[in-house]
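Re: the request from the purification team.
They wanted to know what the chain is likely to look like in 3D before they choose a buffer screen. I agreed to run a prediction and write the result into the notebook, where they can find it.
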Amino acid sequence: MATTYLDFEEPIALLESQIEALRDKSRESGVDASAEIKKLHKKVNKLRQETFSGLSSWQRTRLARHPARPYTLDYINAFVSDFVELHGDRLFADGVSIVGGFGTMAGRRVMIIGNQKGRDLKERQRRNFGMAQPEGYRKALRLMKLAEKFRLPVITLLDTPGAYPGVGAEERGQSEAIARNLMEMSKLRTPIISVVIGEGGSGGALAIGVANRVMMMEYSVYSVISPEGCAAILWNDCNAVEEAAAALQVTAPDLLRLKIIDEIVKEPPGGAHRDPALAASILRRALRRHLEELSALTPDELVKQRRKKFRDMGPVAP
């Protein structure tokens, strides 16, 4: 797959194209260009570090939406063995915008659930662009209750613009399905770890994100509304997205400072899409560490810790 660069990455793209051109010329002519290529590599690495250390909230939002970014099934394929996907909410439909099932990670049986977007237009349409309907949330809850029955930890991967707001979804009880998930997850007697791997959009993400530990990938975002939606409501101007993104404080550093999340999971230079295998390896290590820590807690302690965590969010000064 050809690398897709965002506009703020154009200087990096130019240098990398020069490296590729030098490699091609070296192969054709037989002239050794390794010294010049090495210099350009150092230059591009320095430029990438400078660029990505100063990203704005809106730039991070666009990076979180990058079309080549790893999705839930990519991470499952990378570090979950013996994965058995489970389907259906036993009420209406499968809800393919959310995937989940049993698997083994780091020698431990887990239930892993996550939002799933599509790579091409046909798959995106089938997955509803990662926007779940009630049957998706009800399926997720069914799988969590199944994990609780077998005393297995639950891992959820959040990556959605938000819950689907269509007429059919509302008719089938979209808000009730989300609210029920929030309630049931708050009292689930098994460890829950949630990771925002891309977009953590509103209640659509939170519906599978009530966890003992909440982490974010370095260039992911988590917010109550999209910057576009916020700009439309507050400024009536779709061009105010940069101001909206900054005001919403959607980035991982923002949310770690506000104590909404527990940890930022580092990504490879340039983002998880530049080296998906390395990104998966880093995430796997973080998940394993948190699973080991949570396994020492009793079911009662897990529920108490999870409820306290969310009650302590957003304190208001007297």
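For the purification team: The first strand starts at residue 81 and ends at 85.
Please add any questions underneath this entry.
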